[in-house]
Design a protein that fits this description.
Pfam families: CofD. Its EC number is 2.7.8.28. This is 2-phospho-L-lactate transferase. It comes from Haloferax marisrubri. By secondary structure, the protein is of the alpha/beta class. The chain has one domain: Rossmann fold. Helix content is about 35%, strand content about 20%. It has 12 helices and 15 strands. A 7-stranded parallel sheet has the order 6-2-1-10-11-14-15, with helices on both faces. A 3-stranded mixed sheet has the order 4-3-5. A 3-stranded antiparallel sheet has the order 8-7-9. β3 and β4 form a beta hairpin. α1 packs across α12 and α4 packs across α5. It is globular.
């Protein structure tokens, strides 16, 4: 048995070739939900859905977001209507009083669907409608995710990090905004001052996640702050990692990040944006997989390989390095 912690694109890219190393039937993926938003009344779970769509063979791997070859008729019409009515586009937060009413799972991240600021494809939207409807019928996010995973015929077990709301909010020099506004709408332009995982103090890991964390854990080359950070902020999560073998793949080559806003976010929360900073952020990690060009000297075992992942063959190579690291520390 092995458990992968997934967020953003790093771990999903690793999973793209992991089946050649780790038996999918013995693999659990715990996905970040701090990036989730309620958009036009529908709960969107980007990191859960990246794993869902990739495992179902429908992921748009050019963007690592949404369904491949999806249509956008509804999104297009939403923007046409807004333009015709003179309504402003961009993130439209619901009023503060509306952020904590309604379904609990969407607290602090509710946006109007007017001229939606995230492009949602039509098939993609069907998933969000089904998810939200099942939640409204009384199912937990874990139960709903299990149902969707079955619909997409996933080989691995997929779990959300919690059934409770945790919202990733970025404090910037231009104010506080949800991660999706910071990354999707603003393209990580505002300077980061801090990152808050609102709700984490009151959130709990589920029994299913607790069981998954009792197995050896792999942290792929995901963003340590906004992909893995929300999980670590939940009581008991980091403690569980300290009690099981953990191997982490650095998303950096020394101080150069492969992709995304990890460097700015790490600097914003006080970590050096580098492999050394990742090691500081992961004190529970027993070993690391680093790129062959990464000469960072760590105080824990290191396995080196080419860590760039541009396809399944690359992913399998990195997964084999992960397995080597787990064998050394298990």
């Amino acid at each position: 048995m092995v458990t992968f912690l997934a967020g953003g694109t790093g771990t999903p890219k690793l999973l793209d070739g992991a089946a050649g190393v780790f038996d999918p039937a013995e693999t659990t993926v715990v996905a970040n939900t701090g990036d989730d938003v309620e958009l036009g009344g529908h709960l969107v779970c980007p990191d859960v859905d990246t794993v869902l769509f990739a495992g179902g063979g429908v992921l748009d791997t050019d963007r690592w977001w949404g369904v491949a070859d999806d249509t956008t008729a509804t999104d297009d019409e939403l923007h046409r209507l807004a333009d015709a009515a003179g309504l402003e586009s961009g993130p439209r937060y619901l009023p503060e009083s509306a952020q904590t009413v309604g379904r609990d799972i969407a607290r602090w991240r509710r946006f109007s669907g007017v001229a939606e600021f995230m492009e949602i494809g039509d098939r993609d939207r069907a998933v969000h409608i089904t998810r939200t409807s099942l939640l409204d019928e009384g199912n937990s996010l874990t139960e709903v995710t299990r149902t969707l995973a079955a619909a997409f015929d996933l080989d691995v077990s997929l779990l959300p990090m919690s059934d409770d709301p945790v919202a990733t909010l970025i404090h910037t020099d231009e104010g506080t905004m949800h991660f999706q506004e910071y990354w999707v709408h603003r393209r990580a332009d505002p300077a980061v001052r801090d990152v808050e995982f609102r709700g984490a103090d009151d959130a709990a890991i589920t029994d299913e996640v607790a069981d998954a964390l009792a197995e050896p854990v792999v942290i792929g080359p995901s963003n340590p702050v906004t992909s893995i950070g929300p999980m670590l902020a939940i009581d008991g999560f980091a403690d569980a990692l300290a009690d099981t073998p953990v191997v982490a793949v650095s998303p950096f080559v020394e101080d150069t990040v492969f992709s995304g806003p990890a460097a700015d976010l790490m600097a914003g929360v006080g970590y050096e944006p580098s492999t050394a900073g990742v090691a500081e952020a992961y004190p529970f990690a027993d070993a690391f997989v680093l790129d062959t060009d990464d000469g960072t000297d760590l105080d824990r075992p290191v396995v080196r390989t080419d860590t760039r992942i541009d396809g399944p063959e690359d992913a399998e190579r990195v997964a084999r390095a992960v397995a080597e690291g787990l064998a050394e520390v298990s």
